[in-house]
Amino acid sequence: MRNSLADQTHSLAVALGANQAGPAGSPLQTLTAVRPLLEGVMGSWVQSIEGSSPGTMTPNGASSALTLSWSPLQQTAPVGGPLDQPSYLNAVLLVKGLALNPEPDAALQLLDALQHLEQSFGRNRLREERWGPRPLDLDLLFWGELRLDHPRLTLPHPRLHLRCFVMEPLLAAMQASTPWLS
Question: What is the pTM of this model?
Answer without folding.
Answer: 0.85
